[in-house]
Structures
1.
Amino acid sequence: MQVLVLGAGVVGVTCAWFLRAAGHQVTVIERQSGAARETSFANGGQISVSHAEPWANPGAPRKVLGWLGREDAPLLFRPRASLQQWTWGLAFLRQCWPAPTARNTCRLVALALHSRGVLKQLRAQIGLDYEHVERGILHFYTDHADLELAQKSAALMRSLGCERYSISTQEAIAVEPALESWRDRIVGADYCAEDESGDAHQYTVQLAERCTAAGVRFEFDTVVERMLVDNGRCIGVQVAASNASQSLTASSMVKTDAVVACLGVQSPHLLAPLGIRLQIAPAKGYSATFDIVDTARAPTVSLTDDEHKIVFSRFGGRLRVAGTVEIGGRGLELNTARCESLTRRAQQLFPGSCDFSEPRYWAGLRPLTPSNVPYVGASRVAGLYLNTGHGTLGWTMAAGNGQLIADLVSGRPTELALPAVVA
Ligand SMILES: Cc1cc2nc3c(=O)[nH]c(=O)nc-3n(C[C@H](O)[C@H](O)[C@H](O)COP(=O)(O)OP(=O)(O)OC[C@H]3O[C@@H](n4cnc5c(N)ncnc54)[C@H](O)[C@@H]3O)c2cc1C
């Protein structure tokens, strides 16, 4: 079968790999001039089954209200006169009730657990090396009430098959000695030894090279303008080449047997004309990357700092700190307050570890659904499949979701049950 994959982020490239492995003729269409140049460029690097809980949960509304208007808030809702934004916001609130939260948590953990296993297999099979670290994820707390809630979450995670354990401050420092200077402030932690971390950009670029070697075609600098539908079936896309200044040249049609949309935050816009209304909001996040100057003072284990809701991942000689969510707007401009708070916190926790004078700041738009659960499966339009809306967990879920879509497109049974139609 001929299959078009739209988008060469971590989700699209991984999906292309599994489709090719299943024997299909695969072409990937991407508007940038290379893979992983948008949201998959500089994320937090965590493969975090242990944090596959949705942002929408019973405690979220109170927290979000409390953070309103605070420029450095971990989750900042910037109210705008946008119907789309308010519809998304109301849907988010509906997902905060206990029953949807429980349902979403089960689904997310299942997808993430499956995906982490598939990633490990893929790495063993084709030997990818993207500065990954298999030393787990350590989540540390500085507030007793938050720690107590986390202990409940850890128990829930274990009941769903994720080995996340609550540990003492002393045990946490034994796992990551670079936290020693914070011994008096940390009140406890939880640890999931099976989780891992790695540079999603390096992974995606390397996997794209392997895809090319295996016969996948990449059409870079090519913009998908619209989907082509005939008799209720998706038969391809209309594309236009873009030059370096992104101005479009004449359009052409690309026909195919099946299309997989992996377009991140752009997915709703391209699929709306087909009657497919995806609830995906751009949830802006930031990262800062530093060169390490004293390896002993820099963490190796991937960390989550609960107080600031940010993560740390070590990529060889670099330390990445990432996080914060900002809903409202699609701009990628760097907000100084949010950027500087990342550097300040990294410096506080790991003084002397990095050259903090030259941070490399970056912002990306997570494709976030109100429930955090991505759209993975067949759409209501025959021949069109969705693999998008992965929000805070796109790197964590890319491998497993790519494999699920490849099985679905090939008419094979999928390892996890997928809904008959996802949107
Ligand atoms: C600060 C931050 C930290 C994060 N940390 C983590 C983490 O630790 N762990 C984790 O699992 N996830 C993390 N994430 C989330 C993760 O990065 C995303 O979920 C993931 O990158 C989404 O991948 P994607 O392939 O769906 O989207 P993208 O990477 O954005 O790919 C979509 C592609 O589609 C292309 N495209 C769009 N429109 C068109 C068009 N019309 N024509 C052609 N091409 C088009 C784009 O150019 C893009 O390359 C983080 C995100 C951020 C912002």
2.
Amino acid sequence: MKKNLIYVLLLLIAFAGCKKEEKSSNPFFNKYDTPFEVPPFEQIKAAHFMPAFLKGFEEQNKEIKAIINNPRTPTFENTIKALKYSGQLLTNVNRVFGALNSANTNDSLQSISRELSPIASKHDDDINLNDTLFLRVKSVYENKGKFKLTEEEKKVLDDTYKDFIRSGAALSNEDKDKLRGINKELSLLSVQFGQNLLAETNGFKLVIDKKEDLSGLPESVVNQAASMAKSLNMDGKWVFTLQVPSMTPFLQYSDRRDLREKLFTAYFMKGDNDNDKDNKAIIAKIAKLRVEKAHLLGYNSFADFVLERTMAKTPEKVFTFLGQVWDAAIPVAKAEATAQQMLIDKEGGKFKLQPWDWWYYSEKIKKAKYDLDDEITRPYFKIDNVMEGMFYVANQLYGLNFTKRTDLPKYNPDVNTFEVTRNGNHVGILMIDNYPRQSKRGGAWCGSFRGQGRDINGKMIYPIVTMVTNSTPPTADKPSLLTSEEASTLFHEFGHALAALLSNKTYPGGSLPRDFVELPSQIMEHWVLEPEVLKVYAKHYQTGEILPAEIVAKLDESGKFNTGFMTVELVAAALLDMEYHSIKEPVDLDIRKFEKEAMDKYGLIPEIKPRYRSTYFNHIWSGGYSAGYYGYIWCEILDADAFQAFKETGNIFNKDIAAKFEKEILARGGTRDPLDMYIAFRGKEPGIEALLINRGLK
Ligand SMILES: [Zn+2]
């Protein structure tokens, strides 16, 4: 996923125009005197953030005032461009704060986040709802024919104008006040949601103190749990958490059905425990306020509002699309459930398959069918080797080189930093932060401490990109050894990172719509298990032996295994998101009831839970994916078809295709309509076929 920061503003080197002056004790107020101007993390203390934010607000307010008070007729230059380049300090501090608060948070940052959210929301509204400023933007927009604008500038102008309208600039004063109230409340609620979720995730631990309770677990999983116990001062015990790399292997291998139930129940009840961290009332409020906001802005539902700016455009189109995938997947999932039940019956288990059984029995069937499981492949997926594999792919496709740098500031010892170059020229900095910790939220994402653009004088600004995962950590005697799915996640986030690194635009800010942004990331997942790539990186961590061809073949054959389940849990979450955001009246929802009815409506089978239940669906309540979670599967239409472009030539490293993909997709960022971008790359619009074939549903 991609972390959506609080402001949809811009990203620039701070203080590019700073004169020589006294060094402030607040690192945000000085030009960073670090290599590549990487934020000086070791100097940044929690106490620096609030003063930096406040000064950032103040500076941007001054810049806005100067735009408004400009006596000259509004032009692109003196209005749109001036606006795009305003708020540099604010963007700077916000990028650092957002990244740290997600990946390395603590009580101080969480409390700043709560204090900040209403102030930040007011600051945004003060700009977006400023009449005089809007009139200037409108004047430029209405006179656009009079200015000589590049294609990118035309898009920037259109987007800026639409952003103002969509933020309420054309509303009456009374409605503007209502909107301000809603925005303020929404921003606070989403912060509360995220903080509750982190507390709930960290709040549960399955502690095992008897060896017999570890029955079925492979050695690597046991060691992992022992290592976790040790880090929590519970030497001699074994601890499993609700973090995916800890939980999933337990669900796959533990023979103890009661403990699987205990662990998985704790997982899917996160935020739904009727305690002081419960998220139900919070999301009911968010859902209601979003309908009110949509109505104020003239839309039937929040989904109508969000989707206007996407490839899909309307909720109807999204529902139709999801329905097609659902209809293809649900019979496959039902057949998978039947096969599992048959195995349970054959083994003499007198019970009905439940959600906490799915991983366990599907693993058994997979093992019987392909003689393959994660423990066989893990030794070949040492994390450093997997990263070398992804660097190799980026080198073959785009000629990029990655050099490890140990001399740059980092926010946590786990971070690995690389300088990215091409033909000896600097391209950007990439930080990679791979292991779970209590201070990091779940999932994987990619963000930037500085985004690519050009400064106001046209000078290149090089990106500083950060990708974060929650991968299997190393133990005392073993390095980090990944599952093939975790390897795939690394490639995915690396795809986002490549888009950020190879971006080549002029104006800062701007972003791809949710249903396009996963194309650069998901296309990278196609390379991870290609035999040509595996033979480069999949080496046994002890012997150096290359992954044997028979295992490669098994990986390939088993690639479509369990696809009914994986598709159904994903589409179920996407449908749940769309159901919440298609509500047309601001009603008080009973969350449990709403979720159940929504899932029953589509006939979700009881053996499968949606990938995210409402109370821990971070993407849609605080991650910027509201009415956008479908984007992951929508983008599969694009990535499956785009990868075909390489396959068709018989060369997955075809440099001409890669150059075209870079030029038409990666380099453009949000500077062009997504469908136009895709057609420029592929020559045609993609159909749903490639997705269904790719998932083995056809
Ligand atoms: Zn993603």
